From TrEMBL:
The protein's name: GNAT family N-acetyltransferase
Coiled-coil boundaries: none
Highest taxon above the source species: Bacteria
Gene3D superfamilies membership: 3.40.630.30
Pfam families for this protein: Acetyltransf_8
Record-linked InterPro entries: Acyl_CoA_acyltransferase
Length: 180
């Protein structure tokens, strides 16, 4: 299975926004204008304002066909983090928060999600930041499909927290951690 990742670029934007309009994505993915503006700012290399302004956006292809969307963000000690985030951050390396969706419905429900996420973490450590040794991901506890996929990809739940910013402010999420 040939899975590749690249930074989101202008040529991907129609595909990304079409994916974000899919009902299965809208159910659990940030659907705010701020998030969409952040994607555009990232793509255009302009200053980002959402969360800490450091989110990176990625797109995955399988056998040459675009199918998934990911975001990554580095966690830093001076950020406003929950206790459970702070307690589980890497002590000596970098900690990266991820989010993930398969937008292309042709590839949904085909058992590709966990292997895609594992491939992305491998890609990230090899080509983006070799100092990463900890990944975080934070599914809605009412999204058992995502929780199942993250367990299969090697994440373990370490606690729950309430989002203090963004589309899910005030909502409880699980924090799941994978050490690499
Ligand atoms: C989450 C997501 C990436 C998973 O991709 P997918 O193609 O549906 O997942 P897969 O087919 O690879 O695997 C799904 C697994 O969950 C299981 N599953 C499906 N529905 C489930 C449910 N309601 N409860 C528990 N497990 C469930 C499947 O049986 C399968 O596990 P198995 O391989 O052990 O049988 C995809 O559904 C998606 O993009 N959803 C919208 C965005 C989203 O929710 N992102 C997560 C934000 S945190």
């Amino acid at each position: 299975m040939n899975i590749q990742f690249e930074k989101a670029e202008l040529k991907h934007i129609d595909t990304i926004f079409e994916w974000l309009r899919q009902p299965h994505m809208m159910e659990f993915w940030d659907n705010t204008q701020e998030h969409k503006d952040d994607i555009m700012n990232f793509i255009h290399g302009e200053k980002q304002h959402y969360f800490y302004g450091t989110t990176k956006y990625w797109i995955g292809s399988i056998e040459g066909e675009l199918y998934c969307f990911l975001l990554s963000d580095i966690l830093q000690k001076d950020q406003e983090l929950s206790d459970v985030h702070r307690e589980n951050m890497s002590k000596s390396g970098h900690t990266i928060g991820l989010d993930f969706g398969i937008g292309n419905t042709k590839f949904l429900g085909r058992g590709l999600a966990a292997q895609t996420l594992e491939a992305f973490m491998g890609f990230y450590c090899e080509f983006v930041d070799p100092l990463v040794d900890t990944f975080f991901i934070d599914p809605d506890p009412n999204n058992p499909r995502a929780v199942r996929v993250y367990c299969k990809a090697g994440f373990q739940k370490v606690g729950t927290y309430e989002a203090n910013a963004g589309a899910f402010i005030g909502q409880a999420s699980d924090l799941m951690v994978k050490r690499v």
